[in-house]
């Protein structure tokens, strides 16, 4: 849909709208910026000064530039250009921890002060980017009493990455995502 991704500081569009044989009766430029789902974030029209225009694109998003011209005889010409600007990193990952504790685990933990029934812990990592999909998520975890850190990479990401942590995990977890 958007074949061109730009990652530089800004894009400057500078141009002139003209008709070869007759003077233009009307012309306008409409710019739409949206996120990757198509939700419109911003719309604006550019006013032409003597059929000239200049605008800058500095914010991340999918852009559609719509140029429409009507000459004095009523002929209409429409041109569209699409591109995406992706300069910002993905959003900061959100980690949600879920503990599965069954009836037997609860009974043993109440009677043995938590020494026998170890709970299963699952971390769900939510990652997203305004413009592009997430290509990979690298996560590391290390238990407080472990010498070695476990590092893994997920490349098939459907919005959330599921990580099965060791039973009764106590330690630290770090996450990095790339678009």
Average pLDDT figure: 79
What is the radius of gyration computed over CA atoms, rounded to a whole number of angstroms?
Answer: 27 Å
Order of helices and strands: EEEEEEEEHEEEEE
Largest sheet: 5 strands, mixed
Number of helical runs? 1
Q: Ranges with pLDDT <50 over ≥5 residues? A: none
What structural class should be given to the helix and strand makeup? mainly beta
Helical content, roughly? under 10%
- The global form is rod-shaped
Strand order, biggest sheet?
A: 1-7-6-3-4
N- to C-terminal separation?
Answer: 17 Å
The strand count comes to 13
Percent strand: over 45%
Explain how this protein is built.
- With 179 residues, the chain is mainly beta.
- The protein contains one helix and 13 strands, in the order ββββββββαβββββ.
- The strands form four sheets. A five-stranded mixed sheet has the order 1-7-6-3-4, with no helix packed on it.
- The longest helix is centred in the middle third of the chain and has 10 residues, at 103-112.
- The protein is rod-shaped and about 80 Å long.
Question: TL;DR of this structure?
Answer:
The protein is mainly beta and 179 residues long. The chain has one helix spanning 103-112; strands spanning 5-6, 11-16, 24-34, 40-46, 52-57, 61-71, 76-85, 94-100, 120-126, 136-143, 150-154, 160-165, 171-178.
